[in-house]
Design brief:
alpha/beta; 6 helices; 5-stranded parallel β-sheet
Length: about 120
Amino acid sequence: MGPLPPPAPAGEKPRHLHILWTNADPTAGKLMVMMYARYSMKNGWWDKCTVILWGATVQLMLENQELQREMNALRDGYGVEFAGCITCARELDAVDGLTALDVELEPWGPHLTRLLQTGAPLLTV
């Protein structure tokens, strides 16, 4: 995923949505996170969408094949990006599994702080 883009110029709203996904309920993952990511890109509501796996969702993604298939469909069909917290992945012994799923792992604390400080679009689930 690389470095985050700079904030939108004054007067222009950012068009990159980040979805911070911490709720490990598979129904919330399927019917909120994945559904909103899909339709937001399909309908052009956002130019870019990144789903951030944080906390218990790291383990959920490893264990839930339906969500894995949905992640791949969103990535391949709509360009949704999936990233994850490297610290969470290490704590849950999930680095290899998420890497195999092509989830980009990095320290998300600084990125999240920047998103919050700049008022970037952030949906937390």
